[in-house]
Protein backbone atom coordinates (compact mmCIF):
# COMPACT_ATOMS: atom_id res chain seq x y z
CA UNK A 1 0.00 0.00 0.00
CA UNK A 2 2.86 2.36 0.86
CA UNK A 3 4.44 1.92 -2.57
CA UNK A 4 1.04 2.37 -4.22
CA UNK A 5 0.44 5.66 -2.41
CA UNK A 6 4.00 6.73 -3.15
CA UNK A 7 3.35 6.12 -6.84
CA UNK A 8 0.16 8.16 -6.57
CA UNK A 9 1.95 11.12 -4.97
CA UNK A 10 4.49 10.97 -7.79
CA UNK A 11 1.61 11.03 -10.29
CA UNK A 12 0.03 14.02 -8.53
CA UNK A 13 3.37 15.80 -8.48
CA UNK A 14 3.82 15.12 -12.19
CA UNK A 15 0.33 16.43 -12.91
CA UNK A 16 0.97 19.72 -11.10
CA UNK A 17 4.20 20.13 -13.06
CA UNK A 18 2.39 19.59 -16.37
CA UNK A 19 -0.33 22.01 -15.28
CA UNK A 20 2.18 24.80 -14.66
CA UNK A 21 3.88 24.05 -17.97
CA UNK A 22 0.49 24.32 -19.72
CA UNK A 23 -0.15 27.73 -18.13
CA UNK A 24 3.26 28.90 -19.32
CA UNK A 25 2.56 27.49 -22.77
CA UNK A 26 -0.70 29.45 -22.89
CA UNK A 27 1.24 32.54 -21.84
CA UNK A 28 3.61 32.00 -24.77
CA UNK A 29 0.58 31.57 -27.04
CA UNK A 30 -0.84 34.92 -25.89
CA UNK A 31 2.57 36.57 -26.33
CA UNK A 32 2.84 35.33 -29.91
CA UNK A 33 -0.80 36.25 -30.54
CA UNK A 34 -0.07 39.81 -29.36
CA UNK A 35 2.91 39.98 -31.71
CA UNK A 36 0.71 38.88 -34.62
CA UNK A 37 -1.87 41.55 -33.76
CA UNK A 38 0.82 44.24 -33.67
CA UNK A 39 2.45 43.04 -36.88
CA UNK A 40 -0.93 42.91 -38.63
CA UNK A 41 -1.69 46.44 -37.42
CA UNK A 42 1.64 47.68 -38.74
CA UNK A 43 1.07 46.01 -42.11
CA UNK A 44 -2.37 47.62 -42.35
CA UNK A 45 -0.87 51.03 -41.60
CA UNK A 46 1.85 50.49 -44.20
CA UNK A 47 -0.76 49.48 -46.75
CA UNK A 48 -2.86 52.55 -45.98
CA UNK A 49 0.18 54.79 -46.31
CA UNK A 50 1.23 53.14 -49.56
CA UNK A 51 -2.28 53.40 -51.02
CA UNK A 52 -2.44 57.14 -50.28
CA UNK A 53 0.79 57.90 -52.06
CA UNK A 54 -0.83 59.61 -55.05
CA UNK A 55 -0.37 63.32 -55.79
CA UNK A 56 -3.68 63.86 -57.57
CA UNK A 57 -5.79 61.82 -55.16
CA UNK A 58 -6.70 64.80 -53.00
CA UNK A 59 -8.24 66.70 -55.91
CA UNK A 60 -9.93 63.59 -57.29
CA UNK A 61 -11.45 62.89 -53.87
CA UNK A 62 -13.29 66.19 -54.18
CA UNK A 63 -14.61 65.24 -57.59
CA UNK A 64 -15.17 61.49 -57.78
CA UNK A 65 -17.35 59.64 -55.29
CA UNK A 66 -15.49 56.33 -55.71
CA UNK A 67 -12.17 57.98 -54.85
CA UNK A 68 -13.68 59.69 -51.83
CA UNK A 69 -15.15 56.34 -50.69
CA UNK A 70 -11.79 54.64 -51.13
CA UNK A 71 -10.06 57.21 -48.94
CA UNK A 72 -12.78 56.80 -46.34
CA UNK A 73 -12.09 53.05 -46.36
CA UNK A 74 -8.38 53.73 -45.91
CA UNK A 75 -9.13 55.99 -42.97
CA UNK A 76 -11.27 53.30 -41.34
CA UNK A 77 -8.57 50.71 -42.00
CA UNK A 78 -6.18 52.92 -40.10
CA UNK A 79 -8.67 52.94 -37.23
CA UNK A 80 -8.93 49.14 -37.44
CA UNK A 81 -5.15 48.92 -37.23
CA UNK A 82 -5.29 50.98 -34.05
CA UNK A 83 -7.76 48.51 -32.53
CA UNK A 84 -5.49 45.58 -33.34
CA UNK A 85 -2.71 47.49 -31.60
CA UNK A 86 -4.94 47.93 -28.56
CA UNK A 87 -5.67 44.19 -28.47
CA UNK A 88 -1.99 43.32 -28.84
CA UNK A 89 -0.97 45.80 -26.16
CA UNK A 90 -3.52 44.48 -23.65
CA UNK A 91 -2.38 40.92 -24.25
CA UNK A 92 1.31 41.75 -23.99
CA UNK A 93 1.20 44.23 -21.09
CA UNK A 94 -1.65 42.83 -18.98
CA UNK A 95 -2.28 39.14 -19.63
CA UNK A 96 1.25 37.85 -20.28
CA UNK A 97 2.83 39.47 -17.16
CA UNK A 98 0.01 38.11 -14.98
CA UNK A 99 0.61 34.60 -16.29
CA UNK A 100 4.37 34.86 -15.78
CA UNK A 101 3.96 36.18 -12.24
CA UNK A 102 1.43 33.49 -11.34
CA UNK A 103 3.64 30.83 -12.88
CA UNK A 104 6.51 31.84 -10.60
CA UNK A 105 4.23 31.69 -7.56
CA UNK A 106 2.95 28.27 -8.61
CA UNK A 107 6.45 26.92 -9.14
CA UNK A 108 7.54 28.19 -5.73
CA UNK A 109 4.44 26.66 -4.13
CA UNK A 110 4.97 23.35 -5.89
CA UNK A 111 8.63 23.29 -4.86
CA UNK A 112 7.60 23.86 -1.23
CA UNK A 113 5.06 21.04 -1.44
CA UNK A 114 7.60 18.66 -2.97
CA UNK A 115 10.08 19.48 -0.20
CA UNK A 116 7.39 18.90 2.43
CA UNK A 117 6.45 15.62 0.78
CA UNK A 118 10.06 14.50 0.74
CA UNK A 119 10.42 15.46 4.41
CA UNK A 120 7.27 13.50 5.29
CA UNK A 121 8.49 10.47 3.37
CA UNK A 122 11.94 10.67 4.95
CA UNK A 123 10.55 10.96 8.47
CA UNK A 124 8.08 8.11 7.94
CA UNK A 125 10.67 5.87 6.30
CA UNK A 126 13.10 6.51 9.15
CA UNK A 127 10.46 5.35 11.63
CA UNK A 128 9.78 2.20 9.61
CA UNK A 129 13.48 1.48 9.12
CA UNK A 130 14.14 2.01 12.83
CA UNK A 131 11.31 -0.39 13.67
CA UNK A 132 12.75 -2.97 11.27
CA UNK A 133 16.20 -2.54 12.82
CA UNK A 134 14.81 -2.96 16.34
CA UNK A 135 12.84 -6.00 15.21
CA UNK A 136 16.00 -7.53 13.82
CA UNK A 137 17.88 -6.77 17.05
CA UNK A 138 15.05 -8.30 19.06
CA UNK A 139 15.08 -11.39 16.86
CA UNK A 140 18.83 -11.83 17.36
CA UNK A 141 18.55 -11.30 21.13
CA UNK A 142 15.72 -13.83 21.26
CA UNK A 143 17.82 -16.44 19.45
CA UNK A 144 20.77 -15.70 21.74
CA UNK A 145 18.52 -16.21 24.75
CA UNK A 146 17.27 -19.48 23.31
CA UNK A 147 20.83 -20.69 22.75
CA UNK A 148 21.75 -19.67 26.30
CA UNK A 149 18.80 -21.71 27.65
CA UNK A 150 19.84 -24.74 25.61
CA UNK A 151 23.42 -24.47 26.83
CA UNK A 152 22.29 -24.09 30.43
CA UNK A 153 20.02 -27.14 30.24
CA UNK A 154 22.88 -29.18 28.80
CA UNK A 155 25.27 -27.90 31.43
CA UNK A 156 22.81 -28.58 34.23
CA UNK A 157 22.50 -32.21 33.09
CA UNK A 158 26.21 -32.66 32.57
CA UNK A 159 27.59 -33.99 35.84
CA UNK A 160 31.12 -33.68 34.59
CA UNK A 161 30.90 -29.89 34.71
CA UNK A 162 31.66 -28.00 37.86
CA UNK A 163 29.06 -26.03 39.73
CA UNK A 164 30.90 -22.89 38.69
CA UNK A 165 30.43 -23.71 34.99
CA UNK A 166 26.76 -24.42 35.56
CA UNK A 167 26.31 -21.15 37.44
CA UNK A 168 28.06 -19.34 34.61
CA UNK A 169 25.63 -20.89 32.12
CA UNK A 170 22.74 -19.91 34.37
CA UNK A 171 23.97 -16.34 34.70
CA UNK A 172 24.38 -16.20 30.94
CA UNK A 173 20.74 -17.22 30.56
CA UNK A 174 19.72 -14.44 32.94
CA UNK A 175 21.86 -11.94 31.09
CA UNK A 176 20.57 -12.98 27.66
CA UNK A 177 17.00 -12.88 28.95
CA UNK A 178 17.53 -9.32 30.14
CA UNK A 179 19.03 -8.32 26.79
CA UNK A 180 16.15 -10.03 24.98
CA UNK A 181 13.59 -8.29 27.19
CA UNK A 182 15.23 -4.92 26.62
CA UNK A 183 15.32 -5.57 22.86
CA UNK A 184 11.69 -6.62 23.02
CA UNK A 185 10.71 -3.43 24.82
CA UNK A 186 12.71 -1.33 22.36
CA UNK A 187 11.08 -3.15 19.46
CA UNK A 188 7.62 -2.66 21.01
CA UNK A 189 8.32 1.05 21.46
CA UNK A 190 9.67 1.31 17.90
CA UNK A 191 6.63 -0.57 16.58
CA UNK A 192 4.29 1.76 18.43
CA UNK A 193 6.15 4.80 17.09
CA UNK A 194 6.10 3.40 13.54
CA UNK A 195 2.37 2.67 13.73
CA UNK A 196 1.71 6.15 15.09
CA UNK A 197 3.86 7.66 12.34
CA UNK A 198 2.04 5.58 9.74
CA UNK A 199 -1.33 6.65 11.12
CA UNK A 200 -0.31 10.32 11.08
CA UNK A 201 1.22 9.97 7.62
CA UNK A 202 -1.76 8.39 5.87
CA UNK A 203 -4.58 9.99 7.86
CA UNK A 204 -3.30 13.48 8.48
CA UNK A 205 0.02 14.68 7.08
CA UNK A 206 -0.21 13.23 3.56
CA UNK A 207 -3.93 14.03 3.01
CA UNK A 208 -3.36 17.61 4.24
CA UNK A 209 -0.40 18.06 1.92
CA UNK A 210 -2.28 16.55 -1.04
CA UNK A 211 -5.15 18.94 -0.31
CA UNK A 212 -2.73 21.86 -0.41
CA UNK A 213 -1.41 20.60 -3.73
CA UNK A 214 -4.99 20.33 -5.01
CA UNK A 215 -5.74 23.91 -3.94
CA UNK A 216 -2.60 25.12 -5.69
CA UNK A 217 -3.65 23.30 -8.86
CA UNK A 218 -7.13 24.83 -8.58
CA UNK A 219 -5.49 28.25 -8.39
CA UNK A 220 -3.50 27.43 -11.51
CA UNK A 221 -6.64 26.39 -13.39
CA UNK A 222 -8.49 29.53 -12.25
CA UNK A 223 -5.61 31.65 -13.53
CA UNK A 224 -5.70 29.80 -16.86
CA UNK A 225 -9.45 30.33 -17.10
CA UNK A 226 -9.13 34.02 -16.23
CA UNK A 227 -6.34 34.53 -18.78
CA UNK A 228 -8.43 32.89 -21.50
CA UNK A 229 -11.40 35.13 -20.68
CA UNK A 230 -9.17 38.21 -20.63
CA UNK A 231 -7.83 37.36 -24.07
CA UNK A 232 -11.40 37.18 -25.39
CA UNK A 233 -12.39 40.38 -23.58
CA UNK A 234 -9.38 42.16 -25.08
CA UNK A 235 -10.95 41.62 -28.50
CA UNK A 236 -14.50 42.19 -27.32
CA UNK A 237 -13.54 45.57 -25.83
CA UNK A 238 -12.79 46.93 -29.31
CA UNK A 239 -15.58 45.11 -31.15
CA UNK A 240 -17.95 48.11 -31.05
CA UNK A 241 -15.29 50.35 -32.59
CA UNK A 242 -14.49 47.69 -35.19
CA UNK A 243 -18.16 47.40 -36.12
CA UNK A 244 -18.42 51.17 -36.37
CA UNK A 245 -15.45 51.17 -38.75
CA UNK A 246 -17.20 48.61 -40.95
CA UNK A 247 -20.43 50.62 -40.82
CA UNK A 248 -18.58 53.78 -41.83
CA UNK A 249 -16.98 51.87 -44.69
CA UNK A 250 -20.39 50.74 -45.88
CA UNK A 251 -21.73 54.28 -45.59
CA UNK A 252 -18.83 55.61 -47.64
CA UNK A 253 -19.32 52.91 -50.28
CA UNK A 254 -23.03 53.73 -50.50
CA UNK A 255 -22.16 57.28 -51.60
CA UNK A 256 -20.51 56.07 -54.79
CA UNK A 257 -22.55 57.49 -57.71
CA UNK A 258 -21.51 56.09 -61.12
CA UNK A 259 -23.74 58.50 -63.08
CA UNK A 260 -22.46 61.56 -61.28
CA UNK A 261 -18.83 60.50 -61.64
CA UNK A 262 -19.18 59.91 -65.38
CA UNK A 263 -21.00 63.22 -65.90
CA UNK A 264 -18.09 64.93 -64.18
CA UNK A 265 -15.81 63.45 -66.83
CA UNK A 266 -18.14 64.68 -69.56
CA UNK A 267 -18.20 68.19 -68.15
CA UNK A 268 -14.45 68.27 -67.64
CA UNK A 269 -13.60 67.22 -71.18
CA UNK A 270 -16.31 69.06 -73.17
CA UNK A 271 -14.54 71.22 -75.88
CA UNK A 272 -17.16 74.00 -76.35
CA UNK A 273 -16.57 74.21 -80.12
CA UNK A 274 -19.43 74.09 -82.73
CA UNK A 275 -20.00 70.84 -84.59
CA UNK A 276 -18.00 70.66 -87.86
CA UNK A 277 -19.79 70.74 -91.27
CA UNK A 278 -20.57 67.53 -93.14
CA UNK A 279 -17.97 66.19 -95.53
CA UNK A 280 -18.89 67.12 -99.22
CA UNK A 281 -19.00 64.57 -102.01
CA UNK A 282 -16.40 65.15 -104.76
CA UNK A 283 -18.02 64.01 -108.10
CA UNK A 284 -15.47 63.51 -110.91
CA UNK A 285 -18.10 63.08 -113.65
CA UNK A 286 -18.04 60.52 -116.55
CA UNK A 287 -14.72 58.94 -117.22
CA UNK A 288 -15.07 58.94 -121.14
CA UNK A 289 -15.55 62.72 -121.38
CA UNK A 290 -11.94 63.32 -120.67
CA UNK A 291 -10.37 60.68 -122.91
CA UNK A 292 -9.22 63.02 -125.89
CA UNK A 293 -7.35 65.18 -123.45
CA UNK A 294 -5.56 62.33 -121.86
CA UNK A 295 -2.57 62.46 -124.27
CA UNK A 296 -0.30 61.02 -121.63
CA UNK A 297 -2.14 57.70 -121.85
CA UNK A 298 -0.86 57.32 -125.51
CA UNK A 299 2.65 57.09 -124.15
CA UNK A 300 1.75 53.93 -122.28
UniProtKB/TrEMBL annotation:
Domain F-BAR: start-end pairs: 1-261
Signal peptide range in chain numbering: none
UniProtKB keywords: Coiled coil
Superkingdom in the source lineage: Eukaryota
Pfam family, one: FCH
Alphabetical list of PANTHER family matching this protein: CDC42-INTERACTING PROTEIN 4, ISOFORM B, FCH AND DOUBLE SH3 DOMAINS PROTEIN
Protein name: F-BAR domain-containing protein
Record organism: Ditylenchus dipsaci
